[in-house]
Amino acid sequence: MGTNIVMLSSDARPEAIRSERSAPTKQNSDADLIGRIASGDKLAMQLLYLRHNVRLFRFALRFTQNDAVAEDVVQEVFLDVWHKAGEFRGGSEVTTWLLAIVRNKALTALRHRSADQLDDGAAAGIAESADTAEMVTGRKQARAIVRRCLAQLSPAHREIVDLVYYHERSIADVATIVGIPVNTVKTRMFYARKHLADLLSSQGIRTAVA
User: Fold this and answer.
1) What is the per-residue pLDDT for 137?
2) Distances (CA, A) of 11 to 32, 157, 196
């Protein structure tokens, strides 16, 4: 099946495509779209792509650190969805299923490269913000510090923090995406938050992550 199923072309970069923002209805919920895709509905495939491509691209990019590779990963993910939608059994949210596929494909693409670092958006979601005008510059500096602190976490701990804070996944979802037991996710999250809080504190940043 050609890549035109999901409208992927060289000039159709994820950041240039407007995500589908309307609230899902019974007819266009993610689960419903997957069912329609399993029946060969190309329109449902395009709608699912528009709804999730940006999120999946950004997740892949934090692993690959390369736009072109991240785009290839997302393309492969949606081609997999087109061919394997019938295998989705609803045991998790569709988003969780998609993120798990992205993770596996990104790791395959990486092979011997190191794990990802969180971007400005993720760092902003973790650092405590200050909304006053005089703190705008301070927030930018704080984010840089947060990124440096995040880089000092182990790859496994960075991945957990990324999924929980940036992608707002539940502990159960993270376990599904990463392929580890829930208790392991909880343990990693506990130590990741503690280590990150200690690192941030040493840099003079107070945070609520611990």
Assistant:
1) 61
2) 29, 35, 39
Closest to 189 in 3D by CA, of 209, 160, 163: 160
Q: How far apart are CA 20 and CA 16, in angstroms?
A: 13
- Alpha-carbon distances of 23 from 16, 19, 39, 188, rounded to whole Å: 21, 12, 23, 34
Token pair, residue 16, equals: 């240039």
Q: How far apart are CA 52 and CA 28, in angstroms?
A: 13
The yes/no answer on whether domain 120-202 falls in CATH 1.10.10.10 is yes
Contacts of 145 (CB under 8 A, 6+ apart): 200, 203, 205
C-alpha–C-alpha distance, residues 86 and 80, integer Å: 11
Burial class (CB within 10 angstroms; exposed 0-12, middle 13-18, buried 19+) of 27 = exposed
- Report the alpha-carbon distance of residue 162 to residue 117 in Å, rounded: 9
Residues of the chain short of pLDDT 50, as ranges, are 1-4, 7-24, 112, 114-118, 128-130, 208-210
pLDDT digits (tens, 9 = 90+) for 3-47: 445 544 434 444 433 444 444 455 689 999 999 999 999 999 999
Q: Which fold has domain 3-110?
A: Rna Polymerase Sigma Factor; Chain: A (1.10.1740)
- Count of C-beta atoms within a 10 Å radius of residue 184: 15
Q: What ranges do the domains of the chain cover?
A: 3-110, 120-202
